[in-house]
Structure formats: structure tokens, C-alpha cells
Amino acid sequence: MLDLGLLFVTSLLLGMRHATDADHIVAVSTIACRERSAWRASAVGALSGLGHTLTILVVGGAIVLFKMAFTPRVGLSLELTVAVMLMVLGVLNLLNVQWKPGPLAGMRPFVVGVVHGLAGSAAVTLLILPLIENAWWATCYLLVFGAGTIAGMTLITFAMAAPAAYAASRLGGVQRWVRLASGAVSLIFGAYLGYRIGFVNGLFTDAPRWIAQ
Q1: In sequence order, which residues have a C-beta less than 8 Å from that of residue 209 and are 6 or more positions away?
Q2: Distance from first CA to last CA of the chain, Å, rounded?
Q3: In this structure, are residues 109 and 47 in contact, taking their beta carbons and an 8 Å threshold?
Q4: 209, 194, 213, 186: which is closest to 90 by C-alpha?
Q5: pLDDT at residue 68 above 90?
Q6: Which of 84, 102, 108, 94 is CA-nearest to residue 181?
Q7: How many C-alpha atoms does 85 have within 13 Å on its Cβ side?
Q8: Are 125 and 64 in contact (CB under 8 A)?
Q9: Is residue 202 scored above 50 in pLDDT?
Q10: Burial call 109-131: b when 16+ CB within 10 Å, e when fewer
Q11: What is the Cα–Cα distance from 73 to 194, expressed in whole angstroms?
Q12: What pTM value is reported for the model?
């Protein structure tokens, strides 16, 4: 029981560390930079983490229960969706595309989290399968991992947004430059990921190489 408890604590900490991955931070920052309140920005991080957790539970649970196999090409293709999403978010920020108010606009962070979950669910699940043979405990592990991701994304987004919101309230035009900078970083980083996934890791070649991590 002690070993199982330690495993779940580790899962929570790994979920929080997972939230610090560069692609997570870049994606969420492109949306959060449009918020004038650090608290509203932190809600963006929480929604993104929630979408990520939901996808991990659904896809990861299916992998655990039905012993689904992921080929390197499938794993890399899921990761490529993140690269494409980052480039799209970057272009939208650079062009200052305004989202119409409404539920759909508020769900953007959630959708971003879902896409990230698709890319990460296979890797996270395949890593725990050798450690936890019981499907129920493996699913609980995924849930705790997701909770750590939600907490981590919320804290990180607040930490990034607080200084920007403070500066924007006192200096005109700061938010515009933050939006442009985040858009450029997202576009460039997404293109870099796409190149690595497509050519370095071989998605667009005859010998794709994908390691769950």
C-alpha cells in the first residue's frame, strides 16, 4: 500500500511537471495574454488542464482497458497535431483575430487542452502500463496525473499573466506587444516541432521513430 501511495504522489508531481513542458506553456500563453486579469488568465490554464485530463482519461483508459497498441506513425501523428495547433494559435495572435463573445470563445483553452491530451495520452499510458497491471489503479493513476496537470497549468499561467496584467494596467500598448510576441513564439515553436516530428523523428519518412515520454 505504501508503494501504491508513493506511486500516486509521484503521479501528481509528474502531472505538475508535465504542465511545464514548453508546448503547454506556449499554447496557453497565446490565449492567456489576451486577458487583462491574472485571475482570468489562470482560469485559461485550468480549462486547458481540464481538457488535457479528460482526453487522457478517455484515450488512456481505452489503452489500459483494451490493450490498444500505438505504432510510431500514430504516436508522431498525434504529436504533429500539437505543432499545427501552435502555428494556428500563433497566426491568430499575430493577425489579432478577435473571438466573438460566447461559450465557444470561452472553450478555446479547453480545446487546446484536448489536443494536447491526444498527443500525450498514449505516451503517459504506455509509460505506466509496465508499472501497474491492474486497470482500475492505472486509471486512477491517470486521474491523479491529470489533477497535477490542472494544478500546474493554473499556477504557471497565473505566474506568467500577473506581471503582464500589472504592466498593461499602467503602460498603454503593452498587451499588444505581448500578444505579438506570444504569437511569434507560438508560430516559430510550432514550425520547429513540426520539422522535428516530420523529418528528425521520421513521420514523413519510411522509418518513423517514436518513444513514449
Answers
A1: 72, 201, 202
A2: 26
A3: yes
A4: 186
A5: no
A6: 94
A7: 25
A8: yes
A9: yes
A10: bbebbbbbbbbbbbbbbbebeee
A11: 14
A12: 0.89
